[in-house]
């Protein structure tokens, strides 16, 4: 009797735990696979706005991708090329202009709270001039795409071969917050290399090495 | 010797004596088996028991990767892109030779030093010490702040103390002395002058731990100028060297090696090479490369020189009537020198005035001044006057000094009566040390104002008169304050080091240069870009006065010393001990003895046999009353029987840091000795004669103590020999070294070939096609001097760890490239051959076939790739490698010093515990060059890929390139008659080809030696 009861309890328990684990099993990934990773960034920078709506080329900010292993996160001084003048979303600025002309006064300065973080990082005052009493502090972005230390990926090789950024990074121009689209597994890399060797990139024949030492050294 | 019987080579005396026990031991993986019967049972049962916990740890490791932050610049600097390497010129500050550097910096930090190929002295090479000096920058034990009587204080407080004492000295007329080694930096000298000029009794005194005072004094007498000639080995077709280790440690080894080996690369179309004869007591690196090597006792050296001069006098018909004694060898040397007069060179490294006078005389008789010896642009190294230093020591003894500055010198360590000196220094009113690290003398100083490393501050150098090099900071200062700035503050005119150096160059150097540029600004830009500049010099003519030399010729008599003579010598890597803090240099096997982490008493085999001593027996060396040092014995073939040779530079306080070095495990033993230091300081045994130290001392006694000391010697590690139980199938294997004589080479470029071609039939299908590049390497054994610069270059480039003395004893050193040193010939008079050995990237690689997880496979460009993340550590590959070049990570080697980690090359994986590693042919450099060429849209040109070992080689003995390109240098060399491959007969098809060793000998001479 007791043994049957034990059996029933155990069966129920295992069924219940399977039920609980079901979503986990469904989303099982190999350790290290970060696909879908979409961390919150210190500044709510929108790729959809900049790369999508405003159509700023990727390489305007990520210019290192042409010349270096890293695509690089742009320095704050690159943001300031525009944001020295643009301090808030265009809509908000226009609304203030309209309101000011209606009220017959000079438009007030509007600074969006996200851009304020940029100015704070650079230690700028209200006139966006350096404030010597404050210390500039670099912005600590959260890295989205990360490879293990034993893999060497080189942006320069891919960008110069004509591989589109979106091929690996997905439609970043539609993302409010950047998400890791591909799984960055070795199989994914090697498949693309094999295919590129057969079909070329943008109609151009390429040599994409599949030697181990192309990436591992 | 029968013509068909190959010459016999051996690495150690044990191998020479042979026997099955030796072969088994050499072929064994370890000298000592770990866990053979330890407290935890056998190794196997321990691993079984541990397996469960390993599995648990593995599961615990399955989690998402940690969040990684990335902080970009706030202001994008011009011309710097993250992840790209930039090269800046500088001048090496590791020794006074002042070689030109290209410093590779990455994201704001220097990570590798390369030789500057356009530098007129070093010509692209860089020695082991220079290569390793980058680690000194990231030394976390360098003091950050000044110390006032052992207490860390602010710079203001330290300066106040110094300024107060200087003001007091100015008022009361107290003596201020500035003691340094010979400084070649014009800016530093200017600031010292500025500091001392405002004082009533200020004097700058120099002393050199490795002196050349006898050379200077001799030239003062014979030429009227106290100068050290600039020796031009690149012009010397015949070199006779008397105890001058010019390829190893004497004056400017990189420059000398570059010049020397330029004339020692015989080609089929021009089968020429220079002739080099070496007279010496111990076997030096230079002696090991000599075509003829004569063992003489240090006491006999002047007499040999006198006999040489007497012969040359006769040939020049200027005989002064010196008696000629029968010495056939000297007849031959004199004849060769005379035939090459004007293109020959006699050098003498002994600190002996008569010997140096005679060397000058010989060179004068041969007409070498103006060609192979340059007195117009003399070397500015080692200019110290021993008399000045002796005077200073007297002043210290009597306490007549108000303020003493110590700049880059460590007399408490160097001098035999160092402890007494330390006590006296403590009694002086104020001693200020500018040491980078807390050495013995800094410990005795009241104030320590740490200087900066040469890579983090401005500086300059003038190693040869009129040749100026600039040092520029490549990282914001990590520690200390530039000595230039300290001096400016103490002189009462604070100024930045950058301004000081610019000012010197604008005022003193720019006007002397026939610069193309109008403005100093443009000139300065070019200097920073090129790293060096040559200035016009004024030269007062000097006439030769033979009288002092002739007097010496008649004065010198044949003397023989009774008993043993102690010879203290600077060792490659350690020199005078200034870099003893550097674990890479401590672990670099000495090119000759192959010992690491120790100094030892070298004894000739005959002497050792007579005394009943073998390697590792501890003896007490006694000299004078109550002066004794205990050292282990190392039996050194080729050494003079009456000599006991001991290396300098050991046993200093800088090595106390190694007390805990190496992976900590049950069997761990420290890298330091009972005294807490690495090796023993030999200084107590030396004699001080006024202001100079005598490096030789006759009549030392040697007392066996009965104790034993386990030396960490790598000479029998990773041997290519085969244990007897496997040898049957291997009979007829040819030697690993192939050599010939110049005479034979002239007759037949393939002379010396042992002729064991690979079998015609192949077990393997020819499935390796190399459609693109085919990377290959050629190593010239004639040019290679064994200097080991490549070993350290590889270590820096490829993040190779130092493992500590105990692990070296267990055959676990991690160097990817080693220099095998082979002896041949009679015990007393050995020939030496060096062979750099690294992964041979075999086409039929035995390691690849045995790897169960395909962690080592072949690339389409001929590289044998090791994939760390696949490796599970079976070590089958290591076992199956015929060249024994694979290294296993037994531990996660020390990576806990975060500052030291900044030297790591970000392009190379840091290997973790449990994986195999080996030479990759610097695949990261191949990748970088290829991607850059592709970015520019150009094909990869020959010479664009340089491996780290190749780049640093002062002799340019290593050539790397694409064998599929018929025009490449490597393809040309592969066609040479001297080309051979090691172990070709086992058909592994290595990608490394060696060029046969050629000695400038007659065939008959060779047969006589080895008959």
Give the helix/strand class of chain B.
alpha/beta
Residue share in helix of chain B: 25-40%
Taking pLDDT < 50 over at least 5 consecutive residues as the criterion, the unreliable ranges of chain B are: none
Average per-residue pLDDT of chain A, rounded, comes to 90
Largest interface: A-B, 45 and 40 residues
The ordered H/E elements of chain A are HHHHHHEHHH
Task: Give the N-to-C terminal Cα separation of chain B.
Answer: 4 Å
How is the biggest beta sheet of chain A arranged?
none
- Class based on secondary structure composition and strand pairing of chain A: mainly alpha
Question: What is the alpha-carbon Rg of chain A in Å?
Answer: 25 Å
Number of helices of chain B: 33
Strand content of chain B: 15-25%
The unreliable regions of chain A are none
The total beta strand count of chain A reads 1
Total of DSSP H or I helical runs spanning 4+ residues of chain A: 9
Spatial strand order of the main sheet of chain B: 7-6-18-17-16-8-9
